[in-house]
Amino acid sequence: MSQRRIAVLAHEKFPGGAKTALGVMRYSDDETVAVIDRDTAGDRVADHETTVPDAPIVDSFDAVEGAVDALLIGIAPIGGGFDDSWRSDVVAALEQGVDVVAGLHYFLSEDEEFAALAAEHGAELHDVRKPHPGIGVAEGRSADIDAEVVLTVGTDCSVGKMTATCELVDTAQKMGIDAGFIPTGQTGIMIAGWGNPVDRVVSDFTAGAVEEMLLEKGDEYDVLFVEGQGSIIHPAYSAVTCGILHGAMADKLVLCHEAGREVVHGYEETVLPPVSEYVDLYESLAAPVHETEVVGGAINTSQIETDDSATAAVEEYADEIGGTATDPIRFGCEELVEELVGEFK
Amino acid sequence: MSQRRIAVLAHEKFPGGAKTALGVMRYSDDETVAVIDRDTAGDRVADHETTVPDAPIVDSFDAVEGAVDALLIGIAPIGGGFDDSWRSDVVAALEQGVDVVAGLHYFLSEDEEFAALAAEHGAELHDVRKPHPGIGVAEGRSADIDAEVVLTVGTDCSVGKMTATCELVDTAQKMGIDAGFIPTGQTGIMIAGWGNPVDRVVSDFTAGAVEEMLLEKGDEYDVLFVEGQGSIIHPAYSAVTCGILHGAMADKLVLCHEAGREVVHGYEETVLPPVSEYVDLYESLAAPVHETEVVGGAINTSQIETDDSATAAVEEYADEIGGTATDPIRFGCEELVEELVGEFK
């Protein structure tokens, strides 16, 4: 999609609690003209976070300077609700005819005030987590596409699958590979500007929601990197993981993990099995539908202070996987891309 | 639930193509006062099918004799649509104040004519495939309930999981075991008169939809038999299977199969792996969330003519599983129940 100028709402949460904001600022083609956060207003983004482009931080949409194409809700409270303290910013944007993009479970397009303002001022409300009504049952056809398919899978939620996927795509493109990104969650969809929210479709259509995207993009790229979700042993979200695994019919897998994670986040009674067990589980579960292999791993070492310790963690992880591993943010991922899809350079 | 007197609509499909009708007639507490099928009208149920209670077959709802509490749609076309040739029967029922129960993807309660008639005549429209809005994310709590949980899992769709589950419940109850049934699909929900349509909830809530039912019934029974769905290697429906597996946190599994099935129904490129591989997959995938074991198997031998050949198929299947096996319809399932939950007699 063409580059838009966006304002990113992240009240009281920037940058630590604003995963969506950081993801979009880091990876999308959009230009962030301002972050809206009443707590850090007056500072600049660079005062807090150096891994994303700099921008001013302001306290409200009205304080954003210059033309803006869209206001993007860059935070998601637990449960995906809409915080009414954001209402005045959304109203201000709509009154200026500015589109609003959100990935909440609460759909802005079903809010009477927002819907009326959008209609009145010719602005659009994009609820990226609202599946389009045409999604249906998978037909087992993803393997028919021309592109090589790489899927990120995880040992848990929130270990960095979306980040790893975006880094793999960016690095592959820089290496001259014709690589595309298949988003499956709200942040990925905001980054890409399109996509099916796989965790929000009817459960019978989980694999179908992935297949539809692969069939749509399959002949446009040499390589497609599919953003994974959850973990195959997650007590709540494994259904989504399994549906993506079989729906994507991936040729290669990248196992994502956070260094030091020992139990499932929020489900402390569920201990993470050894990494080698994940490799076996993902490969043996995928095989009857489409043979695949865990070729490498991405490990999030952001909680490890020194590069030496992080390097040690990466090396240990590579051994456990029996493949190439890296922390793509800390150490880059050229070698992993080479290993995965080097033949497409 | 209390016994209702029901008319079962199965136009042009009774009995072979009316899986829902047969399931409800065989296992629910409801009394079937008539089957409605314009093709076989004038015959009796017993002329076509001897495994369910006999009843007259008539050509329309108006031809049903005696009092009726509910009209039940006992057939489901591919895609779950509503066939307009059934409309006059639904209208006739509603005009007499008779409730209508359906498990279609098309919701009768959202049909303007039906909704208006139901309101006017004080009848209820039950769309059993419409999830209630309170279903949410699983909390990993199913193992906290008192009841022993047995889950049926399958090598494919349509191999007899629902039938096996109902036979296990009925047999256990006859053996004096305080056993309950946890339905997860439309026919099971019609039989039980309650339940969450797990294949129709938001994908993130798949495990949660099962957990909610187990938490609700967990202290009322010694043993709960959970109806499984799909298969863990199904190209389209594995998400639902995986969500049920982790959401149920079952203590024991029963692997269901149809004798002679070699490829996934409707996905002929996907060859069924050996039975022993299913056992490994289900057990190893479940273990990180809750340790479980495939204790036995149910094999559908309805396509095998002689009892000798069926017995041979059962014995071979038992060997492959490494446990007790049976065709519960043909040979009963007392031994399997004894093996699974004999200690609760």
Description:
The structure is a homodimer of 345-residue chains. With 345 residues, chain A is an alpha/beta fold. Chain A folds into two domains: 5-127, Rossmann fold (3-Layer(aba) Sandwich); 142-344, Rossmann fold. Helix content of chain A is 32%, strand content 19%. Chain A has eleven helices and 14 strands. Chain A has a six-stranded parallel β-sheet, with helices on both faces. In chain A, strand 13 (293-300), helix 9 (307-321) and strand 14 (324-326) form a beta-alpha-beta unit. The radius of gyration of chain A is 20 Å and the shape is globular. The relative contact order of chain A is 0.12. At the A-B interface, helix 6, helix 7, strand 12 and helix 8 of A face helix 6, helix 7, strand 12 and helix 8 of B.
Keywords:
homodimer; 345 residues; alpha/beta; six-stranded parallel beta sheet; 19% strand
